[in-house]
Amino acid sequence: MFGVVSYQDWTTDQLEQELLADEAERSRLAAKDLAILEELDGRQVATGDGCRSLSEWTASRLDVSRETAKSLVRTMRRTIDRPDLRAELVSGEVSFDRVEALSRILVDVGLCEHTFPECAGRQRYEPGSAQKPNIGPPPTSISSSNHPWTSRGGDCGEDSTGIQEPSSTRH
Question: How far is it, in rounded angstroms, from Cα 115 to Cα 79?
Fold first, then answer.
């Protein structure tokens, strides 16, 4: 599928942009997986196949760890009524890990506005409400320097907020 590529001739910026593009693609694929799992959950495929749970079924079908399968299923269920998070994942602008973490927050507390200033003023979505928000166009390009996780300074231990990571977690 992929030939052997020598990255020695690539600039550091090219390598970083390649990683960002790959992560954006993984995010888009994760969004697709969530939608497929939602449909399969509605069809009760796991029960029909004799599995105890959708997580068990997912782990066996995708050949992933139980933890990975649980993460996918939990995030799918938490984002069914969170089209804002699903849209951000589909756009490739945020990682699955970020959506998983944000999905744990039961009420929208403005995190979209914090992450993407251009989201300010969008209609808020309350889980369980009948009206879906107009989420508008996806945020700007992931390579944009206004995103907190791409605007790090020279030291990777300091993010755009100026908060230092503990030295024990640095590599």
Answer: 18
